[in-house]
Every structure is written in structure tokens, then in C-alpha cells.
Design a protein that fits this description.
Helices cover 46% and strands 12% of the residues. The protein is an alpha/beta fold. Strand 2 and strand 3 form a beta hairpin. Helix 6 crosses helix 7 and helix 10 packs across helix 15. The radius of gyration is 21 Å and the shape is globular.
């Protein structure tokens, strides 16, 4: 029998920590029963005293969501969809990171890591997996194929919940480079919206040699003087084009009326016990992300067909509920030290897709100033903040086009 030295044991432990462990979702039925019980026992307030959404998520929408969630929604369908994909957990900097990893069958596929946002999860990306990994089945060319990695951010979904401070967007950006190199990818690209855009831009700032370029659909391209004026309520700066004026007005509205949740979570995330304890509290909080997405979701629960389905919306909320990640996800706002929309100094190639219902519009003039190596810019005819989720066909075409010159 050979004796192992302390050094060998330490090395074995290091190997174990870097291991890629297969992952399956299997929620006990008792947890789903308890979820329905809590929904049915919601203590409701009276309806809002206005006829629009200016006071927040409306009672009619929330009650329609609750009825469907408690009586018709089937979590097992989402579970089966997730378990039909290769999922893994690996430890990075002491934290378990969950991710989907789908390799393309096409030769020379380009490795791509796609990051979700808040109030999001990997469900935002499920509709783009096949179009990006298997483009020939969706009207695309084999030369546009990607190997796709879709991680759950720390504190979100099936990833670990940080127990110490420090998991800010820059740390996540570094962790994603570790993840991609651990998967054996020596060259890759990155994509993101919402927090995913901030993280992806910070990957671009860090510019690891493996990262060829990035694609974003919530660009951090607002010039400093415009961002300051919009966020402080100062007058619109002089000399803006019509397109820039519209972008300024959108930003001013978002800062003054649209990101209450961002201020709350940025200052006092631990106080939000209500969204950890009440499924309807969580759902309403998640629905209140932005005026344009909320308008779409309220139409969905009123019975209209739109870019999302009721199941899409509830899959995302249910993941956060079942994993009890409402507060751990909220802490990312507290950890963050960067402006959501401000220029961060990305020096590597950048592709930008500007969707009309995004919370920050991005005129080409701003994109060209913010990104010295702008390789793709396109304004889309429809779609909003959750573009991959709402408009997967348009989004997938944009990602293919955006990275084509880097292959």
C-alpha cells in the first residue's frame, strides 16, 4: 500500500474542486404542494386607485397569474425541458456554479457563453439553444454554429448562494473566463443582456486573451454627461440628434420611474423577506422590472398571444421560488459598483443589437463612441429587454451576424 503525501492529497482535492459534476433537477412533490398552498393563501390588498400601472403591478394581472399558477401551471414540464439538456455544476472560487453546456455537431463551432440577468434565470436562454448550436435546422448556415454555455449567475437558480461579500459583476466576469477555459475552450465569445450585459462588458474590459469579442443587447454606451443628466433630473444636454433625444427621454423615465427595485436591492436587499416568504410577493416584484416588459406580460395573463407565454413567465419565477434565491439574487445590486448603462471602457470587438423596447435605447452614434472596435450594430423592429426570451429568432440571427467577422 502506498502512502499519500499531504501535497498529493491537496492536489487530489484541487482536481475534485475543478470537476464537472452532472446535474439534474428533481423537485420533491411536497415542495410543489406547499407552493400551491401558499399561492391559495395569499392575503390580497385592494386594487390600485388608478386605471393604469403607475402605482405598480396591477391586482387584476397578479390575480390572473395566481389563478393560473395554482391550478394549471405544470412545473414538471420545465423540469423535463431542463433535464433534456446537459447540465453541470463546477466549483469556482469556493462557490458551486450551475451551467448548461450544449456542444454543436458542426465542425469549427465557436464557443459562446451567454449570461442572463435579473429577474432572470437560464430559462431566458432556452429558446436560443437549438438555433445557435444547430443553425441549419433554423434556416442558418453550419458556419454560424456555436458551442453554447449558459450559466446560472452566483446566487441565482441552481448555482450556489454566496455566503461572503465579493461576488460582484467583475468577479463573475473573471469566473466565466475560468469556466470557459476549464471546459477546454482556448478561444471564445460572450453575450449578455441586463446583468449579463454588465458582466459581458466587464469581460471585455478584463480582455482575457481567450476572449475574441462580445455581443450585448443592453449596451453600456450612454455618454457620461448624458447619463449624469438623466439620472439627476438635469435638463437634456444641447446638441442631441432626434434619436439621441428619444434615448435621453427613455433613460430619464427609467431612472425616475422605472428602477425602484434597483435602488431598494442596491441599498437594503436583506430587508426583502416578503419576496422570500410569499410566492405572489415574489411574482409581483419580478413582474415590475420595466414598463415595456410588464405591459407585454400583463397582456399575456389577459389571454393575448405575445412574445412570452404564461408558462415562460412562471418557469422563471418558479425557479427562483424553489431555489429560495430571491434575496441572494438581490444582493448583486448591493455588490455592484458600476453604472448599468454607462461606458466601461471595452477595448475588444463589440457587437450591439438595439431592441426598440429596451430600457436604454442605443443610437449608433453612442455605440461608436463607447466601443472603438464596434464590429456590428443593428436596430431591430421589435423586441424588448428580455430579447432572447421574447424574440429568439431575431435574437439568434443577431448573435450569428454579430460574431461572423470573428470566426
Amino acid at each position: 500500500m502506498t502512502q499519500t503525501t499531504a501535497t498529493q492529497r491537496g492536489s487530489e482535492q484541487a482536481v475534485d474542486k475543478n470537476a464537472l459534476r452532472p446535474f439534474h433537477v428533481n423537485v420533491p412533490e411536497a415542495e410543489l404542494t406547499e407552493l400551491r398552498r401558499r399561492i391559495n393563501n395569499t392575503r390580497w390588498p385592494e386594487r390600485e386607485t388608478v386605471t393604469d400601472a403607475t402605482q405598480g403591478v396591477q391586482l387584476e394581472t397578479t390575480q390572473a397569474l395566481a389563478r393560473y399558477w395554482a391550478t394549471e401551471y405544470d412545473w414538471r414540464k420545465c423540469e423535463a425541458k431542463l433535464n433534456g439538456l446537459p447540465q453541470f455544476i463546477t466549483e469556482i472560487d469556493g462557490l458551486d456554479i450551475h451551467f448548461i453546456h450544449v456542444r454543436s455537431k458542426h465542425e469549427n463551432a465557436l464557443p459562446l457563453i451567454v449570461t442572463h440577468g435579473w429577474p432572470g434565470s437560464i430559462t431566458e436562454q432556452l429558446k436560443i439553444i437549438d438555433p445557435l448550436t444547430n443553425p441549419t435546422a433554423h434556416g442558418g448556415n453550419a458556419s454560424d454554429a456555436f458551442h453554447l454555455v449558459v450559466p446560472s449567475m452566483p446566487g441565482y437558480g441552481f448555482s450556489g448562494r454566496p455566503t461572503k461579500t465579493g461576488w460582484d459583476p467583475a468577479h463573475i466576469a473573471r469566473a466565466w473566463t475560468v469556466l470557459m477555459t476549464r471546459l477546454g475552450y482556448t478561444k471564445f465569445v460572450a453575450q449578455g443582456g441586463d446583468w449579463g450585459a454588465v458582466i459581458t462588458e466587464l469581460m471585455g474590459v478584463q480582455a482575457p486573451p481567450e476572449l475574441l469579442g462580445i455581443h450585448i443587447n443592453m449596451p453600456g454606451a450612454v455618454p457620461a454627461e448624458i447619463d449624469k443628466a438623466a439620472s439627476t433630473g438635469a435638463p437634456m444636454p444641447d446638441g442631441l440628434s432626434l434619436e439621441e433625444k428619444l434615448a435621453f427621454e427613455r433613460l430619464q423615465f427609467v431612472y425616475s420611474k422605472g428602477v425602484a427595485y434597483g435602488y431598494q436591492m442596491g441599498l437594503r436587499p436583506q430587508t426583502l423577506y416578503g419576496i422570500a416568504d410569499s410566492p405572489i410577493g415574489l411574482a409581483a416584484y419580478f413582474l415590475d422590472h420595466d414598463a415595456w416588459s410588464y405591459a407585454l406580460i400583463s397582456r399575456v395573463f389577459a389571454g393575448e398571444a405575445a412574445g412570452l407565454t404564461r408558462d415562460d413567465v412562471l418557469d422563471n419565477i418558479t425557479i427562483a421560488w424553489l431555489t429560495n434565491t430571491a434575496i441572494s439574487g438581490a444582493r448583486l445590486y448591493w455588490e455592484n459598483k458600476f453604472g448599468y448603462f454607462s461606458v466601461k471602457g471595452v477595448s475588444i470587438p463589440v457587437a450591439v443589437s438595439s431592441f426598440p423596447d429596451e430600457i436604454d435605447l442605443c443610437p449608433r452614434s453612442w455605440a461608436e463612441r463607447a466601443y472603438p472596435k464596434l464590429i456590428h450594430y443593428n436596430k431591430l423592429p421589435k423586441g424588448g429587454h428580455f430579447a432572447a426570451w421574447e424574440q429568439p429568432k431575431l435574437f439568434s440571427e443577431e448573435v450569428r451576424a454579430g460574431f461572423r467577422s470573428l470566426r
